Sequence to fold (236 residues):
Amino acid sequence: MAEESELPGAQPAGGDNAGHRARLRARLLGAGGEALGDHEILEYLLALTRPRIDTKPIAKALLREFGGLGPVLEADPETLARFPDMGEASVAAIKLVKAAIQRTLYGEVADRPILGSWQGLLDYLRADMAFRLNECVHVLHLDSRNQLIRDELMSEGSIDQSAIYVREVVRRALVLGSAAVIIAHNHPSGDPTPSRQDIAITRDLANALKSIGIVLHDHVIIARDGHVSFRTKGLL
Fold:
């Protein structure tokens, strides 16, 4: 990977860029992040690692390529590093923001009853899963107070399919001493509507867990265009 200073195509940032960044900084500090557009947030973030070049074209190109700020933050480091004019420090800055968001949202659900902070759970799951390019399945194990014991990534699949293994969920629930379980998976298509297979495997899992005294509280499908709760839809 090329050093940042050696990357081709970058134009030195002159006084105009310095003034522009000062104005972005003033808006950010004065009115908060809502005062900046997505491209301005990304532009300023990249400028912290690339102070001598104009990062606005890079930010706009990234947003066009990936389809939005969320997908840029979700993109894997190797893909970001192959993008024109990106370097290791810039990739690390993007992934650091992603990690900070996820860590903060996890803290909102880790030490309190999940069912009493449902919106916090949805925010956490959306930040982690909504913009992934491949389907993945998370199993959230809860104790008798409905507090989170562990969030486990069960499987990662293709762009339109991932596996929920009933026996494995049951086995891990027994090992962890779970009193209840929540399943979450994403639909990279953007549409959270459950498939017939989603519905069938959820019912199988609910029955298997019930037979050993463990409750399946919900199965949540996360997507860019929203989410679906099986419990709310009457599918559990």
User: Anything to note?
Assistant: The CA atoms of residues 62 and 83 lie 8 Å apart.
